[in-house]
């Protein structure tokens, strides 16, 4: 092998290439210059490729550039050797260089062809320009899309804010808002509707709106929802009770479908006010009539009594005839007494108001009561803390209290217990909702309570009307309570009756406080009234009282479940395990009292807290054997602070009883 290379490199027997060119200078230098230029160009290309690959390391197929550099460098060497062999015949070295160049060229070509498809995928400048233009178009579209998305986002945010405001209006509206479709299916039921009808929103969704109406409303065809009558109608609560309401229905289009919006306004308070106004107007009319009659009748009685007295003096010698004259005089005096009561009812009597210590007034009348009332009537007193001073006519107040005590005696034919009490009371907005004729503020309260037969609701309704009486003919004029009513109204006060058959009657006289007495402490206590979050079952048959209690209890943070009688209350208790307390009136229709309801409720739910409410104080109920001393009783009427405190007291009492 070495011998082969020696022979190949041996140029002693060879002639230089210039001999073939006959040493023509022009021809020789033509080859020299040409090969030198080609070699210089070849040598410059690898340097350029080396710089390119070094600087651009991100180029694909970088090793191909190095292969081209080696191949082109070898090509440049062959041209240099072509110049050298013009004078020196080193054809062996030239052959070896050409062999290496051939190897490099074959390798480069072999590597290039497989890469050709990949190289062809590299975009051309024209294609890059097209791509750049497309990218610019896409960038413009992206900016437009971004702007459009921003506009859509702003529109959605504005819509959300609008929906949030509308939702806040609907959710916080005092009146009920119901949304329903053309098939009368309920689509929206706001919290005010939940309070009005007693249903939760989830319970009525997609149900017929007729379920909230009276029987007349239910008979309306569902396919004609737009024909629901607007104006005053009757609503039907979940508990089966009815209430007056004002319904107004409007229509709108939503997603191409006709929908209806119903606004429900509870007319319970307005109807109560109208009834009270009608009663007041009736009483005012009767009062004006009776007052006019009383004044004219007094003139006649003046003549009759005066002539009877004169006739009695003239008949001293005739005792038989004089007795007739005395009888006429006594009858006239009784007539004068009746006319005085008529004047008191019509508020036309002359009053001389003064500051009265209510405790002292009641104590001073005890001797009179003991002489006047039967021996089987037990009399007791109860006084609130502090000095209770009223501003009224003392003689008229004494007459009113005596009159009520005599009425109480008549209600207890077999004897009983009479309680006279006084305290400082406050009239708040809740009480004024039931008695709008009263002004808010502090009042001196005098209560007369008996445990007699009690009154029916019909009797209570007419009790203050003149000449109305349940007594036998000749045993009552029917003007006693009328006189008390007129005296209280003329004194800027108020009279209320709380009575339950079998429990007795409590009549309360509210009179203005003297000396500017205020209930600032009570107001502060009301602002700081304890609150809660428990669920309370309220059993109350009177719809006005039930609505008022529900609102007041919910205002203290509690959840309320309502029932109209004991049977329904037990059903609610079984159906709702989340009920934490029973708040029940003592006397309810349906054959089940509050005591019986509490007993059965505690059989279902042992340890259930119970708060009773009654027009009687707990002491009176215990004396009558109608309550246990540890029972928690809230006496009607009551203020918000009293309600809040008694609710917490009932929870505390139940916790003590059920504790270890």
| Helix coverage percent | 40-55%
Name the average pLDDT. Answer: 77
Count of helical regions:
22
Strand content: 15-25%
What kind of sheet is the major sheet? 5 strands, antiparallel
Low-confidence spans: pLDDT under 50, at least 5 residues?
217-227, 520-524
What is the number of strand segments? 17
- CA radius of gyration is 55 Å
What strand order characterises the main sheet?
Answer: 2-1-5-4-3
Class based on secondary structure composition and strand pairing: alpha/beta
Shape verdict = rod-shaped
Separation of the first and last Cα atoms? 116 Å
List the helices and strands and how they pair.
Layout lengths: L1 H8 L7 H4 L4 H31 L6 H23 L6 H31 L3 H48 L3 E6 L4 E4 L1 H7 L3 H4 L10 H4 L12 E6 L5 E13 L2 E10 L1 H47 L4 H27 L7 E5 H15 L4 E7 L5 E5 H17 L5 E12 L1 H6 L6 E10 L6 H6 L17 H11 L3 E7 L3 E9 L7 H8 L7 E5 L3 H13 L3 E5 L2 H10 L5 E5 L8 H11 L5 E5 L3 H6 L9 E3 L4 H19 L2
Parallel strand pairs: 7-9, 13-14, 13-15, 15-16, 16-17
Antiparallel strand pairs: 1-2, 1-5, 3-4, 4-5, 6-8, 9-10, 10-12, 11-12
